[in-house]
Predict the 3D structure of the following.
Amino acid sequence: MVRHEHGALRHAHGKRLKSLKTINYGIIGCGMMAQEHIRNIALLPAARVSVVFDPVADLSQAAARLAGAARVATSIDDLLLEENLDALVIASPNDCHMPQLRQIVATRPLPILCEKPLFTDVGDADAVQRLFADYVPPVWVAMEYRYMPPVAAFVAQAEAATGGIRMLTIREHRFPFLPKVGDWNRFNARTGGTLVEKCCHFFDLMRLILQSDPVRVMASAGQDVNHKAESYGGEAPDIWDNGYVIVDFASGARAMLELCMFAEGARYQEEISAIGPAGKIEAQVPGPGRFWPAVLGPAPVPLLTVSPRSPKGPYTVEIPVDPQLLAAGDHNGSTFYQHQRFAAVVRSGGQVEVTVADGAYAVAMGLAAQESARTGQAVRLT
C-alpha cells in the first residue's frame, strides 16, 4: 500500500530521492480525470505538474491551483513552449486525442501518457500506428483498470487458479455517465460510442488476461433508461447505457462483457470471473467510495475468491486499497500505480506496459462491438 511502500521508499532512499531530477508534467485537458492525475502525481517522489491547459479557463485555473501554482498555458502550443517540461498527460475529451497527439509529435516529442480511448474513428486505426512508428519517447495508453489491486491480483493468479482460462466474464454495474463540460460524453460522435468510451478498458483487460487477440465480436446494446429526457442544443443524446458483448479469441477462449449503467445500487461495480479445467477465480471491485452512502457504513472492500474444482474448497481474501489512494481518485488506487510505472519509464527507460498497439486493439474491439450491436451481425477482426 502506498503509505507503507512510498513511506519506506522515502526512509530508505531519502538522500537518493533528493538527488533525483524532478519530472515536470504538462496536463492537456483539466476536467475530472485530469484532477485525479494531478492528485496522484503529487504522491510521487520528485514529480510535479508545471503547466496545464484547457480551453475552458475555469478548469485550467482550478487544475493549476490543485497542482500548486502550475502555469496556465493559453494553448497547447504555449504549453509545449514550457521550458520545464519532461512528460505530458492527455486527459481531454475523446475526439481531441488524435489531433493533440499529432500536434505533439510535430511540435515537441515528449513522453506521453494518453487517456483512453486512443482514438474514436475507425479511420484512425492505421494513422495512429504510423504516427508513432518512429517516435522515440515512450507513449503509454492510460488503462487504469489493469492496476486496481484486486484486478492485478486476479491477473497474477488467474492462470494457475483455472489451469488455463477457457471462459472470462467481466461485469460492470455502475452509475450513469457523469455531466461533462460541453456534454461531450452524451454523443457517439465525440465518444466513439459507449462500447469504446467506457468499455475499451475491459477489452484491454480481456487481451491482457487471456494473452490472446480477438477474432470475432458479437454484441447487443442500446439506450433504455439514461439521458432519454435530455436535450443539448436541440439534440437528444444517443449514448448507450447497457449491453452484452461476446468475444472469441485466437486461443479458443471466449469472453463476455456485461455492462449496465443504471445499476449504481450494486454493492460491487466490477465483477470479473475466469474459469478453466482446474477451477474458477473471481474479483469483486467496489465503485468510487464517494458514491457509497454513509448511512450504510464503510464502503465495501475488494475481494478475490478462488474456487478449485478438486478438492472443493472456495476461499476468499480481502484486497484492501490504501485510503490515501482511494482519496486521490475514483479508480481504486490504480491511477497512482500507473503513474508510478510511467514515471519509472520516463526517468530510467524500460518497456511501456500499455503500448499504442494495446490502445489501438482496445478501440478496435469497441468499434467492432458498436458495429455488431448496430447491425445485428458478428464482426470479424483481422
About this structure: The CA atoms of residues 280 and 307 lie 5 Å apart. The chain has 14 helices and 15 strands. The two ends are 41 Å apart (CA to CA).
